[in-house]
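thread: overnight batch results

M.L. [08:02]
morning all. the overnight job finished for the chain we discussed friday. pasting input first so we're all looking at the same thing
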Amino acid sequence: MASEINNEEIPANLQPGDLIEIFRPAYQHWALYLGDGYVINVAPLEETTAASFSSAKSVFSRKALVKMQLLKDVVGNDTYKVNNKYDDKYSPLPAEEIIQRAEILIGQEVCYDILGNNCEHFVTLLRYGEGVSEQANKAISAIGFVTAAAGAFSLLGIFPNKSRHGH
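M.L. [08:03]
and the structure it wrote out:
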């Protein structure tokens, strides 16, 4: 696996159809390499500048726009790496097919949901024909744990029940 790369260099081994993992302050953003320095990715509709991609607000948007942008503009000041991490589980489609599928979507508005249809789902759907997101699975597990813990605490009386206090 390649090490993290800063924004000044495009690796020679970067191939059309590669998944690019971009390390934002609170999460990872994903893009798919198209070639010639360009990527396709989803960006929240209400935000248009590269700097806005690093905001937490972008994670909670409900609509997104499919954009073709220069990799360096999407990365901004963050670091990134090529991460085709699902290649051992799913067979990548031929690069030509990945690019054709991607080009059809440029400029389209899509639904965005951090747990069910996020930027990682988008690029893995293009690469493999199946949307996958380890990031979403971890979030779903964490939410499930918090919900279960809150229920257990409530049952144990750790979180007071309003009815006990005569409310």
